């Protein structure tokens, strides 16, 4: 189930001329809805041929963008699978899907930076937000972007 996520993101960015997950969703016809989802950060579902991404409105705008990029990854990478069936019947399948969606979000959101300059991302992390949850999300995103973690599946 290995995918060249980096290439998929690169082609998507080239096609739509943006790394903004909001704009990409709009161009793909994916509906994005914001609601208080309790402890759930977000999810993606298909209903009657339409893709819908739900984002928890209680999170910061910064966190919502990362969550949206992650859910967009599910919408693009996993739309042709019965993920509910696979999660229930295959050990660690959920981890595989989540790792792929995390890698997709990392490639999309950190794509514009110099790939070899990790120090720039450290600086960027310091400048973006002082919120601890936001910084944790960005650091996890950096980890996925600059490692091959998702390949250990």
UniProtKB/TrEMBL annotation:
Residues 25-112 form the IrrE N-terminal-like domain. InterPro entries: IrrE_HExxH, Rad_response_metalloprotease. Pfam families: Peptidase_M78. This is IrrE N-terminal-like domain-containing protein.
């Amino acid at each position: 189930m290995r995918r060249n996520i980096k290439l998929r993101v690169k082609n998507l960015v080239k096609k739509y001329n943006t790394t903004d997950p909001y704009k990409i969703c709009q161009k793909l016809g994916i509906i994005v809805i914001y609601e208080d989802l309790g402890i759930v950060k977000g999810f993606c579902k298909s209903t009657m041929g339409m893709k819908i991404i739900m984002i928890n409105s209680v999170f910061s705008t910064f966190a919502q963008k990362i969550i949206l990029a992650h859910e967009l990854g599910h919408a693009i990478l996993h739309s042709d699978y019965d993920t509910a069936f696979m999660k229930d019947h295959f050990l660690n399948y959920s981890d595989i899907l989540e790792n792929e969606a995390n890698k997709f979000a990392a490639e999309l959101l950190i794509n514009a930076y110099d790939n070899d300059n990790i120090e720039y991302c450290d600086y960027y992390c310091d400048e973006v937000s002082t919120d601890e949850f936001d910084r944790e999300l960005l650091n996890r995103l950096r980890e996925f972007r600059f490692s091959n973690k998702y390949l250990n599946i």
